[in-house]
Amino acid sequence: MHDEMRPTGQGNRIGTDGSEDDSVVRTLIVDDSRETRQVLTTLATSAGAHVTGQAASAEEALAWLERYDCDLVMTDYQMPGMRGVQLVEAIKSRRPTIRVALISILDDHDLETGARRAGADWVLSKPVSLDLLEEMVRSAKSHGSRLTRGLADTLGGGA
pLDDT for 90-134, tens place per residue? Predict the structure, then answer.
C-alpha cells in the first residue's frame, strides 16, 4: 500500500464524549502532486474538514474507499491513468452518498458539464479559496445530517 493511501486520522464519527458526531466531515484528498495534497489538506482542515486519507491517483482512491469510509472526496481532474471525471463516476456508482468535488486548473465549460454529468457535486478551479472550501464542508455536514436523519426515519428511529 502506498504511504499516502493510509488513513491519516480516525475514520469514524465518534465525538470526544463517545457519541456519534455528525459534524465531522471525513475527507479524502486525491491528487498526483504531493505538494497539492498537502496544501488541500491544510485548507480543508482549516475549513473544518477532518482529512482521513490521501491518495496519489484515482486507482489508489478507489482502493482506499473499499477499505475506509468518508463523506467528501476532493479530487484533481488531470492525473495519470484514470482522470478525475472517471473517478467521480466510479465513486458515485459505488457510493452515491459521498459528496465529490472535482478540482482543475483548467477553466473549461465542457469539463464542468462532463463532471456534473458524472455526478460531481462541485467543480472548482485552482487555486481553491478557503471561503469556498468552508461552504463545501458546511454543505457536506448538512448533507450527512440529512442522510443520518433519513436513515433513522426509515428504520423507525426518527422523531
Answer: 999 999 999 999 999 887 888 889 899 999 999 998 888 889 999
Determine whether 94 is exposed, middle or buried from the number of CB atoms within 10 Å of its CB (0-12, 13-18, 19+). Answer: exposed
Of 31, 97, 90, the closest CA to residue 63 belongs to 90
3-state secondary structure of 123: strand
Closest CA to 30 of 1, 3, 56: 56
Region of 109 (left: φ > 0; alpha: ψ -120 to 50; beta: rest) is alpha
Hey, what's the cell of 131? 471561503
The β-bridge partners of 75 are 30, 102
Domain count, the chain: 1
Q: What is the CATH number of the domain that holds 51?
A: 3.40.50.2300
Compute the Cα dihedral for 46, 49, 54, 55 and give only its sign.
negative
User: DSSP secondary-structure letter at 53?
Assistant: E
Question: Which residue, chain included where needed, has cell 486520522?
Answer: 9
Give the structural domain span for 87.
Answer: 3-153
pTM for the whole thing? 0.78
